[in-house]
Specification:
Helix 3 (about 50-75) crosses helix 8, helix 8 packs across helix 9 (about 175-190) and helix 10 runs antiparallel to helix 11 (about 215-235). Helices cover about 75% and strands about 0% of the residues. It has about 260 residues and is mostly helical. The protein has one domain. The chain has 12 helices and no strands. It is globular. The chain has helices at about 10-25, 25-45, 50-75, 90-115, 120-125, 135-140, 145-160, 165-170, 175-190, 190-205, 215-235, 240-250.
Amino acid sequence: MEPQHLAASQGWQWTKQGYALFIKAPLLWIVLLVICFVGVIGLSVVPVVGEPLASLLLPTVLVGLMAGCRALQQGEELELAHLFSGFQHRTAQLVTLGGIALVGQFMIFGVMLMLGADTLVGILMSGQPVEDPEVIGQAISGAFIAVLIGITLFSVLVMSMQFAPMLVFFNNATPMAALKLSLRAFLYNIGPMSVYGAIFISLALLASIPMMLGWLVLMPIMFASTYAAYCDIFPPVKEDSAATEVVDHNEQPHP
C-alpha cells in the first residue's frame, strides 16, 4: 500500500468534500463533536491519569468520527453509535497508537529539556493557561534552538499521526506501519497539505468571530475533510478486478 501523490489544488477539493459530508447531517455532527470535547475535558480534569488517558484514547475516538464519514460517503445515516466504532474494532492497536504518540511527546519534551528549554517545557506540561504573554516570550527566546528542534520534532509527530488511526482502523495496518505510511503520505503531498492548511487557517480566523461560534461548524468540516484526504491519498484497492484477473488466468485452457 503506497500513498498517492496528488496536485496542490486537491487541498481545496478536500475542504469542499468535507463540507459536503458535514452538510448531510450538520446537527448530529455538532452533537458528536460536543460529546467528544466534553469527554476529553472530563478525562483531563482527573488528577494524574486524566490527561495521559485522554491521549491514549484519542485515536480510538477519532476513528469513530471517521467511521461516521464513511457511512455518509456510502449513503448511510450518521449515528451516535459511530462514535464508539473504535471501541469495537482494532481497539488495542488504536490505544497502542495513542501510547506511541504520548511517549513521543514526552521524548520531545525530554530533548527540549536537555537543550535548555526547561522553563518552556514546564509551562507546556503544567496544563495551566499563562496570563502574561511575556512569560512565554522570555521562555522561547531563552532557548531558541531548543524551540526550533522541538517544533520540528512535533511536526514530524503530527504528520505521522495525521492518517495513522484511519490506516489502523480501515486498512488493518500495524501502529508502526501506519505511522510510517502517514508520514510518507504527508511528505509526498506537501503541496495539497499546505494549501489545505492555509485554507483552514483562514477559516479559523473567520470562525473565531464572534465568540468562537464558527468552530461548531469548522471542526466537523475539518475532521470530514481529513477523511476525504485519506480516501484520496489511500484509495481502496479494487479487489474485484484483481480477483477477475486471477479467475481469467485460472480458466485459461492448458495445452
